[in-house]
Amino acid sequence: MSTYKELKRACFEANMALPKLNLVVYTFGNVSQADADAGVFAIKPSGIPYEELKAEDMVVVDFENQVVEGKMRPSSDTRTHGFLYQRWKGIGGICHTHSTYAVSWAQALRDIPIFGTTHADHNTRAIPCAPPMADDLIAGDYEYMTGQQILDCFQDKQLSYQEVEMVLIGNHGPFTWGKDAQKAVYNSRVLEEIARMAYLTLQINPDARPLKASLIQKHYDRKHGAGAYYGQESC
Amino acid sequence: MSTYKELKRACFEANMALPKLNLVVYTFGNVSQADADAGVFAIKPSGIPYEELKAEDMVVVDFENQVVEGKMRPSSDTRTHGFLYQRWKGIGGICHTHSTYAVSWAQALRDIPIFGTTHADHNTRAIPCAPPMADDLIAGDYEYMTGQQILDCFQDKQLSYQEVEMVLIGNHGPFTWGKDAQKAVYNSRVLEEIARMAYLTLQINPDARPLKASLIQKHYDRKHGAGAYYGQESC
Amino acid sequence: MSTYKELKRACFEANMALPKLNLVVYTFGNVSQADADAGVFAIKPSGIPYEELKAEDMVVVDFENQVVEGKMRPSSDTRTHGFLYQRWKGIGGICHTHSTYAVSWAQALRDIPIFGTTHADHNTRAIPCAPPMADDLIAGDYEYMTGQQILDCFQDKQLSYQEVEMVLIGNHGPFTWGKDAQKAVYNSRVLEEIARMAYLTLQINPDARPLKASLIQKHYDRKHGAGAYYGQESC
Amino acid sequence: MSTYKELKRACFEANMALPKLNLVVYTFGNVSQADADAGVFAIKPSGIPYEELKAEDMVVVDFENQVVEGKMRPSSDTRTHGFLYQRWKGIGGICHTHSTYAVSWAQALRDIPIFGTTHADHNTRAIPCAPPMADDLIAGDYEYMTGQQILDCFQDKQLSYQEVEMVLIGNHGPFTWGKDAQKAVYNSRVLEEIARMAYLTLQINPDARPLKASLIQKHYDRKHGAGAYYGQESC
């Protein structure tokens, strides 16, 4: 019996949430769940349709990209997941999709401005769009460098991965993360809604401006600040 | 056994209509139902997913924000509900959502113009967008002042809360109300459709104008006027 | 037992198709089915939610607006239906909705240009948008005059109701008709799709032009011309 | 018992996927599956609603448009399918729909630019929009010439049908193909999503540019190149 049964089950369930939340068509997405102590993560196998996916199909990989358990080839984006788990302590899940509105902002090479409290309930900054990487990096270890691309983007824009749990890869699509795979999937769904609302906002008013700093801070703090009062104590 | 069993059931059922009507993702919404004689209202507990919600979870609160019955923390927007019940006699339900199109108009800081009879069947005015409140009020009793913000907006624009049962909070989203919680939810669904149609109307014709006064009045009156002839006598 | 049992059943089934086809929210629509020989039609009762509707609730009315059978008040738009049945020989069903894209074109006061073969498969002309009627007519027998408004529009634009089975009432929404109620509903669904595609076409290319006359005629004729070869012989 | 039972079943199942994937309304689409060795293909009968369709209704036709088996009239677009099977060796399925976003680009007479990796995962070129054909060809053997129109478009733009498995017919809609009918349907679904994302991209940033050549090639090659590493070995 597998040592990673629970890890694989958690990863499987988070993956299965993607089609239910309309965040993927066909196989255009993947979620992983990490076990930081064991230094491994479970991830979706590459190219398998969600309707055929089983918990035991999840592939367990270490942070150096070696398969630890599983018969199938892991997601083609596995290197990006491993790169981020290795560098960002405390994240336990990563989600990548090609969800429609998030991808459209990524293709437009635009950060998503913070226009309202739906966005500020989750973080206080524009959702960053990482610029495409250099040609030689694309030709090299592309998926590993996608992790670097995300890291560089957060450094350039002075963002904290603990606050902003989402990024757009320019001309590609979104990556999100969180304390576990379910939170990463939650962030993907929230990002898609924020992306859709920001798009519509600019269509209605091309001169729309970010909401004011005091309102951003109020909404962020009531959910995440020291005196947070959203949700139940135990949540 | 609870004195408020029926109140909580009505509140619960109205809340459960939100995901069914595609007006919320996750927990981004709340509905309350008031008992004016008892001076209390039942409201959704904060941060509980709709799929886990039960009628007995509803929290009963008085108009001064004291919990009368319930083990959970009420919605973070409870103060706004209480403020409005205290001032607006005759309303028995309030609904708050982050529905996509209504939020987008709120983020654009634009009133929704009255472009057609779908809108005029419900009221005769543009749906108002209340401007963001001052920084010191945001830092203070924010949710209470959100109620004040709505009141001020209706005063500034000389609107009747009995006719116009909906408002947009700038950079945030919609609040709606009515004789009971079900009517408030109905108004949220209607507002979302009006918001979507108005958005599309301006995309098709950026110079679109409100419909003429005689047509607004005709449609409003055939549903709500003295000689109303829409629906059945008993409705 | 009712003489009109079959008429009412056909009317009921056509009405129930509206929510299934996403053409209505709440009660914003109505369908009728006529029996030309008997000089009557069955129509939805006013303001009754679709989920509560029963076949026996349908109201039978003659072309002069007299209720022949039924306990409920017929749709508030009944006069418009009667007007058209009286004047347009051969139509057996009429459908009115507030479907999103068709309403948006109506609110924009724009005819829907003929941009592609999806449109030309059904008729060869822009879908007309009837301008709002004069104030005194609105204040008078409004629903009756809505019928007149449609008739005038078809005369002004030299359209045949036998070819173009759909119209937009400016600032209001669409009416469609056909040989029976099911065909009228079909036309409402097709109109909504044509309206959506035409909207998107103009967003992608604001200088988009109608398709050429030879292609319009080819597609119309292969479905409706003398040598039509679409569908099965018996259809 | 039919020699073509399996061919018809495969064709039927691919057709039934269209409504499930929201690619058709009513009967606006058709799929065929070919047996190259036998020189025949099965195709949907003309004008039959999907909910009534049965596997045994599929019509078997040879590449010269002669019905080999089946009581019904084949799709009105059958000649286009036959034309392509005759000329493009190795394709085993063809799909035609009036899906909303693909049709809108076709009506706008615009190629769909390659804005992101979702597109580059499938081919390396803009999705071509074939210009409308000359009037005399429309009046002649229209559906046969639609095949010629596609061929001419691919020649003019120097495209390979083995790489780019999709085309837009100007003012009409998309045709897609692949190794079998299921792959053709898959391509229709992917095209619809690419068309929707490209539309949104240009709405967000009217100056959006195609992604860079190195990134296009990387994504295409990791799925389709000599060293492809997407999916499982056996896929």
From TrEMBL, chains A, B, C, D:
Gene3D superfamilies: Class II aldolase/adducin N-terminal domain. The keyword ATP-binding does not apply. GO terms for molecular function: aldehyde-lyase activity; L-ribulose-phosphate 4-epimerase activity; metal ion binding. Its cofactor is Zn(2+). InterPro entries: Aldolase_class_II_sugar_metab (IPR050197), Aldolase_II/adducin_N (IPR001303), Aldolase_II/adducin_N_sf (IPR036409). Belongs to the aldolase class II family. AraD/FucA subfamily. This is L-ribulose-5-phosphate 4-epimerase.
